[in-house]
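Thread: tetrahydrodeoxyuridine complex, take 2
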Amino acid sequence: MTYEKLIEAAITAREKAYAPYSGFKVGAALLAEDGQVYTGCNVENASYSHTICAERAAVFNAVSAGARNFKAIAIVSEGEIPASPCGGCRQVLAEFSPGMRVLMANTKGQVVASTVRELLPLHFDANFLKGGPNA
Ligand code: THU
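Output below.
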């Protein structure tokens, strides 16, 4: 699976986005260590705060199918600059694979590459909880 193909999967996932309130459609495609791809899109709600972002939808889809280790995520949105994942999604991505690559793309084909660690330095994780190595 090339990163180009992963971005294509995110473009396809974006077509399913349910974003009647913001009009901002986002698609995500998560590449698991075993090569499987799990997708997600943002799903909004009339009670706005119950909206889920595309990235978290993709992670929950993958984890529900038994995948927990990821190599990369592609995120596709529209706009002049490819959208960067929100703080909540960064935390959810870091839970499973802080080293994963993050490919942010827009519908014009521009791509910005980073990693979860770079986007969320010093993230909170299980090590800080009681019983972990740092407790
Ligand atoms: N959104 C995502 O799906 N991913 C992001 O990285 C940023 C924001 C969604 C949430 C909401 O449905 C819409 O974009 C506008 O915030």
